[in-house]
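>> received
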Amino acid sequence: MLETSARLLRLLSLLQAHREWSGADLAERLGVTPRTVRRDVDRLRELGYPVNASPGTGGGYQLGAGAELPPL
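>> returned
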């Protein structure tokens, strides 16, 4: 479970860079499969983070406006 939590924080950090990431790029950065990235994005949405997804070959994931990491 700790691995998952750390990965979710890393995913949030990447998304907060205000760049659109493809699922494949995120998977490579996180060392997981694109399917795991989709599951992690779903978890972030369940936690209330507005993760936007753009479909298609030029699409990707981006953190919605106004979303920030909480202070640790």
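>> The first helix runs from residue 2 to 15.
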